[in-house]
Amino acid sequence: MDARRRYQADTRVVRIFNTYGPRMAFDDGRVVSNFVTQTIENKPLTLFGNGQQTRSFCFVSDLVDGLLSAGRVETYDSPVNLGNPHEITMLELAEEVMRVAGHRVDVLHQPLPKDDPKRRCPDITKARALLGFEPKVSLTKGIAATYENFKARLELRRARV
């Protein structure tokens, strides 16, 4: 925004919401990578609070499509949210990861951090109108692709040790 104001740069500003997919870092601290890695390694899933807080997750290819669309349209004057508006609880995410994995692991409940929001979900109304943005990859397909990628990479890493 400073470059636009100061130098009249042709800019687009987007807000990126929880994105996930293959090739994420195993230990980046995000809930999807944590749950997938813990499930593959047969470790308990770390679930904070009672798991009823909600999030929404956008598969990486959907986000990339949104970013490319933002670069193709005429400039716009305020940020556009890119993410998936489909909300699920953290408990539902844990169940989905285990379902995709085909096996269950224990769930370890930890205290909910004080600053943890109860709800996080983007309003993509503007992205739909300006960019024609609409997430296409279902959570099940996205988690499956992420799980298979993580499993292969973890097996490769173990083979090197």
Question: What's the topology here?
Answer:
Blueprint (H helix, E strand, L loop, with lengths): L1 H6 L6 E3 L2 E2 L10 H10 L4 E4 L5 E3 L1 E2 H13 L7 E3 L4 E3 H12 L5 E4 L14 H7 L7 H22 L1
Parallel strand pairs: 1-6, 2-5, 3-8
Antiparallel strand pairs: 4-7
How does this model look, in words?
- The chain is an alpha/beta fold and 161 residues long.
- The chain has a single domain (2-156), classed as 3-Layer(aba) Sandwich (Rossmann fold), CATH 3.40.50.
- The protein is 43% helix and 15% strand.
- The protein contains six helices and eight strands, in the order αββαβββαββαβαα.
- It has helices at 2-7, 31-40, 60-72, 90-101, 125-131, 139-160, and strands at 14-16, 19-20, 45-48, 54-56, 58-59, 80-82, 87-89, 107-110.
- The chain has a two-stranded parallel ribbon with strand order 1-6. Strands 2-5 form a two-stranded parallel sheet. The chain has a two-stranded parallel sheet with strand order 3-8.
- Helix 2 (31-40) packs across helix 6.
- The longest helix is centred in the C-terminal third of the chain and has 22 residues, at 139-160.
- The protein is globular, with a radius of gyration of 18 Å.
- The model has no long low-confidence stretch (mean pLDDT 94).
Key traits:
161 residues, alpha/beta, Rossmann fold, globular, 43% helix, two-stranded parallel sheet
Q: Look at the helices and sheets and give the structural class.
A: alpha/beta
Order of helices and strands: HEEHEEEHEEHEHH
What's the structural domain tally? 1
CATH architecture: 3-Layer(aba) Sandwich
Alpha carbon gyration radius: 18 Å
Helical stretch count? 6
- Report, as a whole number of angstroms, the end-to-end distance: 47 Å
Q: Write out the strand line-up for the largest beta sheet, numbering strands in chain order.
A: 1-6
Low-confidence stretches: none
Q: Which fold name fills CATH's third level, the topology?
A: Rossmann fold
Fraction in beta strands: 5-15%
